[in-house]
UniProtKB/TrEMBL annotation:
Alphabetical GO biological process terms: CTP biosynthetic process; GTP biosynthetic process; UTP biosynthetic process
Positions of ATP binding: 9, 57, 85, 91, 102, 112
Record-linked InterPro entries: NDK-like_dom, NDK-like_dom_sf, Nucleoside_diP_kinase, Nucleoside_diP_kinase_AS
Catalytic activity: a 2'-deoxyribonucleoside 5'-diphosphate + ATP = a 2'-deoxyribonucleoside 5'-triphosphate + ADP; a ribonucleoside 5'-diphosphate + ATP = a ribonucleoside 5'-triphosphate + ADP; dZDP + ATP = dZTP + ADP
Enzyme Commission number(s) from the entry: 2.7.4.6
Enzymatic class: transferase
Stated name of the protein: Nucleoside diphosphate kinase
Keywords: ATP-binding, Cytoplasm, Kinase, Magnesium, Metal-binding, Nucleotide metabolism, Nucleotide-binding, Phosphoprotein, Transferase
Residues with PTM Phosphoserine: 122
Source organism: Oikeobacillus pervagus
Function: (Microbial infection) Catalyzes the phosphorylation of dZDP to dZTP, when the bacterium is infected by a phage that produces the substrate for the synthesis of dZTP (2- amino-2'-deoxyadenosine 5'-triphosphate), which is then used by the phage as a DNA polymerase substrate.
Length: 148
């Protein structure tokens, strides 16, 4: 089953949005595999956002993601990577539709509430950056019979 890395960014944690965000993915029918509230080190932030290191906003991005605790999560389900991206909404909240997380809660691109992996390769890479194998749980949920 496909897995993705999702992270409530420091603005989402400070704004008490962890519960709402977790609830959306739960209600959708995805399964939580691992989660933790954590501080991100500068080195981890730079590794996570390595693809953006030449972009002018890279420094701000690293400063922001290390500015307070994040809520790191791994979710599992059919097409969870692409579906979670749709549920997050466009990168810039001004373009994100109502009903999406960024559309409902965000205003500016620099504080857009949530991160989500954008491909199977980035999901595998990002899960590996933030979680040890033993922090992820394999369990069956009877509710899955009513989802699949
Ligand atoms: P996403 O988070 O939707 O995958 P991304 O990978 O292109 O978007 O960029 C990573 C983060 O960098 C994004 O969530 C917010 C920030 N960012 C992107 N474009 C930006 C810009 N033009 N100015 C400031 N921050 C930006
Ligand atoms: Mg991205």
């Amino acid at each position: 089953m496909e897995r993705t890395y999702l992270m409530v960014k420091p603005d989402g944690v400070q704004r008490n949005l962890i519960g709402d965000i977790v609830s959306r993915f739960e209600k959708k029918g995805f399964q939580l595999v691992g989660a933790k509230l954590m501080n991100v080190s500068k080195a981890t932030a730079e590794e996570h956002y390595a693809e953006h290191k030449e972009r002018p906003f890279f420094g701000e991005l690293v400063d922001f993601i290390t500015s307070g605790p994040v809520f790191a999560m791994v979710w599992q389900g059919e097409n969870v990577i692409a579906t979670a991206r749709q549920m997050m909404g466009a990168t810039n909240p001004k373009d994100a539709l109502p009903g999406t997380i960024r559309g409902d809660f965000g205003v500016t691109v620099g504080k857009n509430i949530i991160h989500g992996s954008d491909s199977p390769e980035s999901a595998q890479r990002e899960i590996g950056i933030f979680f040890k194998e033993e922090e992820l749980t394999e369990y069956s949920k009877s509710m899955n019979d009513w989802i699949y």
